[in-house]
Amino acid sequence: MNSTSRRRFLGLAGAALATPALPRLGAAQSWPSKPIRAIVPFSAGSTIDIIGRIVAEPLAVALGQPVVVENRGGAGGTIGSYMVAQAPADGHTILIHASAHSAAPAAYPKAPYDTANDFSGVALFGSVPNVTVIAPSKGIKTLKELAEAAKKGKFTFASAGVGSATHWAAERLRLAAGFDATHIPFRGGPEALTEVMTGRVDFMSIGISSGLPLIRDGRLIPLAVSTMKRSAALPDVPTTTEAGYKDSDYTFWNGMLVSAKTPRPIVERLNAEVQKVLALPAVQQKFAPQAIEAMPLTPAEFDALIKKEVESNLAIVKAAGLKFN
């Protein structure tokens, strides 16, 4: 083969190898071509709903298409998640979820999707401290008092649904503090908070974004936050670890995912645009009252985090002796 023929052969071979990638690249270049549906699998006013809407508005501007937030609550987030898993994998349907996502295999073993393999992580918005709250009428001022009272009587705790971050944070705290309490799940955080505020349910571990207004109004008493260090939003409130309960911390992340079959160039562009949005001063200003802490993971690192948490949540279920259908 002479040099001219060799160059022609190599050129044709290179073109042949590149051809399969052209449809994927073309899809990414023409994306988004229509409004994007952002499915939030919990009710309006929940922590992830609040944070998701803060991100969605400037993201729409960056992408040149509306980002329409739809609340599809129920079954610990699995109903909304399944909608995204079933939607066309073209980047026009995204999932705005929280750490309840990685709890689904433990809480909903019969869920009609594979948490780790049917979704791709896009970007984390950050983590939000969960705060354990109780009504003033209960006469309890500290986490230790709550644990001691629960050991003596029949206590209940509310959550935004079975397998939600609010459920898991409370179970982790309960295990660490060594007391029993009956779980009362609701459709979303706001509904659960109402029952705690009235005293009909004893306590709840809720994201600060949702609980802070009621704490400031004096309608709820904050007992502890579930982070490793105190929250700037509630600097006088100790952590659950400070309160004396080892391994009681819980990471309540919030972020964006898409169907696992979504073309990688779209995932990468979405990640890049979300990172730009998170760096905007206006977004950071809105995040500040929510006490959101940055978690700048790559999509691959996000996927690895989910797989790790799936395993740890299954271990919590076993340790707590929880039974799910």
Protein described:
This protein is of the alpha/beta class and 325 residues long. It folds into two domains: 35-128 and 252-320, D-Maltodextrin-Binding Protein, domain 2, CATH 3.40.190.150; 130-225, 3-Layer(aba) Sandwich (D-Maltodextrin-Binding Protein, domain 2). The chain is built from twelve helices and ten strands. The chain has helices spanning 3-18, 21-30, 47-63, 78-86, 100-107, 143-152, 165-177, 189-198, 208-216, 264-278, 281-287, 299-320; strands at residues 36-40, 67-71, 93-98, 119-127, 130-134, 156-159, 182-185, 203-207, 221-225, 253-259. The protein has a five-stranded mixed beta sheet with strand order 2-1-3-10-4, with helices on both faces. The chain has a five-stranded mixed beta sheet with strand order 7-6-8-5-9. The longest helix is centred in the C-terminal third of the chain and has 22 residues, at 299-320. The chain is globular and about 60 Å long. The N and C termini lie far apart (68 Å). Mean pLDDT is 89; it is low at 9-19.
What's the CATH topology label of the largest domain?
A: D-Maltodextrin-Binding Protein, domain 2
**Largest beta sheet: what is the strand line-up?**
2-1-3-10-4
- Strand proportion, as a percent range, falls in 15-25%
CATH class of the largest domain: Alpha Beta
CATH architecture of the largest domain: 3-Layer(aba) Sandwich
Order of helices and strands: HHEHEHEHEEHEHEHEHEEHHH
The total of beta strands comes to 10
The chain-level structural class is alpha/beta
Helix content: 40-55%
Number of domains as seen in the coordinates: 2
- Cα-atom radius of gyration: 22 Å
Low-confidence stretches: 9-19
How much is the average pLDDT? 89
CATH superfamily of the largest domain, called what?
A: Bordetella uptake gene, domain 1
The main β sheet shows up as: 5 strands, mixed
What would you call the shape?
globular
Distance between the termini: 68 Å
Question: Total number of helical segments?
Answer: 12
